[in-house]
Design a protein that fits this description.
The chain is an alpha+beta fold and 340 residues long. It folds into two domains: 98 residues, Phosphorylase Kinase, domain 1, CATH 3.30.200.20; 226 residues, Alpha-Beta Complex (Aminoglycoside 3'-phosphotransferase, Chain: A, domain 2). 42% of the residues lie in helices and 12% in strands. It has eleven helices and nine strands. The strands form three sheets. A five-stranded antiparallel β-sheet has the order 1-2-3-5-4. It starts with 6 loop residues before the first helix and ends with a helix.
């Protein structure tokens, strides 16, 4: 028995929708997620799929809408942004006590950390890094109306809306006072740049959310934070995740994948994105600060869910280090704002 899965009912639901599926099915929780839970499904013929569902227990309002995530991935299926093919969404809670959706299992490595990145030959890392930027540029070039996502969210006032949303989430989730969060919030509101254009914004665009083969991204994963808005927010987030060798990281856990060396510098990413999109990145430090602040708000929510047991077993996770990472992210946001 796998926690979070009603194997009998989910199997019956899948049999009605996937021709040729061969029960009994095995379900395995895929490690590495701090958000929606991801399970690999394997049938008796070796065919594989993936199931996504919300975390167990405490869930913030609107934070884990898997039906919405399914809609986004399905809408992008015929674009040049690589996503996994989908097979349907179930919103009937009698099937599995929570909504879920099914997508194809796509081959590729997930570069969660430096150890995983070591599996990519050093000679391929630079081109893979450029591919990361190119895929993001292609995502930002899509007209949301052309793929049926024009009503996914408001296109204008993205930063203002995000500050409001994550301030609410922070206030609902916080377990302690962090002065840098409050001061960063004030400065972010005070120095907000004018939004130029709008696009589909992934919201969690980083190496750990791709499946890769060689220098190619085979699928972009984890679309639960996707919305419409300012594309520079995505790019600022990517730059923050792109920790270079010798730099300190604000997140807990293992070393980030880009610390192994061989990947392009942040400056090279900026040049590539500017060339691909024609966008002005003069205000990118603001977007990086915003990204750190938003990650701190998200991280506090994850930390609280671990405290109340909603994320399942903690394993060897150091909760104190995770709590410290929220403070570090808030301080990183404040540092960028004060240096600007």
């Amino acid at each position: 028995m796998v926690e979070g899965i009603n194997a009998e009912r989910v199997t019956a639901w899948l049999q009605e929708r996937i021709e040729g599926i061969a029960p009994p099915l095995s379900f395995e929780l895929i490690a590495g997620g701090h958000s929606n839970l991801t399970y690999a499904i394997t049938d008796q013929r070796g065919q594989r799929w993936v199931l996504r569902r919300p975390p167990l227990g405490h869930v913030l309002e609107s934070a884990h809408d898997v039906a919405r995530e399914h809609r986004i991935i399905s809408a992008l299926a015929d674009t040049d942004v690589p996503v996994a093919p989908t097979f349907g969404v179930c919103e009937d809670r009698e099937v599995n006590e929570a909504p879920f959706y099914i997508m194809q299992f796509v081959d590729g490595m997930v570069l969660h950390d430096a150890d995983a990145a070591q599996q990519v030959p050093e000679a391929q890392r630079h081109d893979l890094g450029l591919e990361v930027v190119d895929v993001l540029a292609r995502l930002h070039a899509i007209d949301p109306d052309d793929v049926g996502l024009g009503q996914l969210g408001r296109k204008e006032a993205y930063l203002e809306r995000q500050l409001k949303r994550w301030t609410k989430q922070w206030e609902n989730s916080k377990t302690r006072d962090i002065p840098a969060m409050e001061e960063s919030r004030r400065l972010l509101a005070e120095r907000m740049p004018e939004q130029v254009g709008a696009s589909i914004v992934h919201g969690d665009y980083r190496l750990g959310n791709f499946l890769v083969q060689g220098t190619r991204i085979t699928a972009v994963l984890d679309w639960e934070l996707c919305t419409l808005g300012d594309p520079l927010a995505d790019f600022g987030y990517l730059l923050n995740s792109w920790i270079q060798p010798g730099e300190l990281d604000t997140r807990p856990g293992d070393q980030p994948p880009t610390t192994v060396g061989g990947f392009p510098t942040r400056e090279a990413l900026v040049a590539r994105y500017e060339a691909a999109t024609g966008r002005d990145l003069a205000s990118i430090s603001y977007y990086r600060a915003f990204s750190h602040w938003r990650l701190a708000a998200i991280g506090e929510g994850v930390y609280k869910r671990y405290l109340v047991g909603a994320m399942g077993e903690r394993g060897e996770m150091d909760l104190d280090a995770f709590a410290d990472s929220v403070v570090n992210r808030a301080q990183a946001a404040l540092d960028l704002l004060q240096q600007a």
